[in-house]
Write a structure and sequence with these properties.
Blueprint lengths: L3 H16 L1 E14 L2 E14 L3 E5 L6 H8 L7 E6 L4 H6 L3 E4 L11 H12 L3 H14 L15 H14 L4 E5 L7 H18 L2 E6 L2 H7 L2 E6 L4 E7 L14 H17 L5
Parallel strand pairs: 3-7, 3-8, 5-6, 6-7
Antiparallel strand pairs: 1-2, 1-4, 8-9
The structure holds adenosine-5'-triphosphate.
């Protein structure tokens, strides 16, 4: 028989387990009503994301990756099922500034310096000038852009602009970072470099990241969990919990363990792919 203290310990463990769940999605579907009829963007999605996970959504065009990210961010409403973010509705989580969102294009205001772009959400939050300055310096440093504060976006390369937009998302100090193909438009060498930097940043800060990509090496290199989606209707085909070491460098991509996971992702993508796309 369990003692009262053991029951209490068990309850505490269960509660702290519960506290670590960042995203909980159950039987979630989303159908868009369009002039051409309904589009089943997401169907029967079940997914759990824990604190500190790096989760990639990968799948062919139109399988619902962006829609799923937008549901988490409260930018789209599911038509069935449930979702919580930090135990709250996506709307409450958004109002609590639970997440930072990084878009496909850097989306920086060209008439503002990089520092002023990063300051914008902080001004809206009502932080003092000194607090804004502190967060700008800290996050410019984190993305290796220290010294570029007074430049305008057009004076920076595409990769630097994307790093600046990551710094802007981080400056709000969210525990959750939602990233929609942030490096999709960059050449492969720059992309490798940014993958490496993002991995180190995640490792240092232990944030939870949800990341949309089309690239198998990017998904496998960055993720602790890879969610393979397939289209019509958009659904989860496979969830791969990566057993690669947390400490990673780009040469890991040549290892048999890496290639094995990449192979499983590729098989999942092939199964869900239509060559009409
Ligand atoms: N606002 C909308 N109204 C109607 N249909 C939409 C809307 N947004 C997305 N869709 C449709 O929902 C499906 C999923 O789109 P989504 O953008 O989530 O796919 P994706 O996997 O992110 O694609 P890609 O890789 O091309 O960015 C597609 O068929 C798309 O046309």
């Amino acid at each position: 028989m369990l003692t009262a203290a053991e029951i209490e310990d068990g309850l505490e463990d269960a509660m702290s387990e519960q506290a670590k769940r960042v995203i909980d999605i159950e039987k979630l579907s989303l159908t868009f009503q369009t002039n051409d009829g309904p589009v089943h963007a997401l169907s029967d999605i079940d997914l759990k994301i824990e604190e500190g996970d790096f989760v990639s959504f990968i799948g062919p065009s139109g399988c619902g990756k962006t829609t799923l990210l937008r549901v988490i961010a409260d930018l789209e409403q599911p038509t069935a099922g449930s979702i919580t973010v930090n135990g709250l509705s996506p709307e409450q989580a958004r109002l609590n500034r639970a997440y930072g969102y990084v878009f496909q294009a850097a989306a920086l205001y060209p008439w503002r310096t990089i520092a002023k772009n990063i300051a914008l959400p902080l001004e809206i939050m009502g932080l003092s000038k000194a607090e804004q300055q502190e967060r700008i310096s800290k996050n410019m440093e984190l993305v290796n852009l220290a010294g570029f504060e007074q430049k305008y976006p057009w004076q920076l390369s595409g990769g630097m602009q994307q790093r600046a937009s990551i710094a802007r998302a981080l400056a709000v100090e969210p525990d959750l970072l939602l990233m929609d193909e942030p490096f999709g438009a960059l050449d492969e060498i720059v992309r490798d470099h940014l993958n490496d930097q993002l991995h180190q940043l995640w490792d240092k800060t232990n944030k939870t990241v949800v990341f949309v990509t089309h690239s198998i090496p990017e998904a496998v290199y960055l993720s602790t969990k890879i969610v393979v989606l397939c289209p019509r209707p958009g659904r989860i085909y496979d969830v791969i919990d990566s057993d690669l070491p947390r400490n990673r460098t780009l040469d890991l991509r040549e290892s048999p363990e890496f290639l094995k996971i990449a192979h499983r992702v590729r098989e999942g993508l092939k199964a869900g792919h239509s060559y009409d796309d």
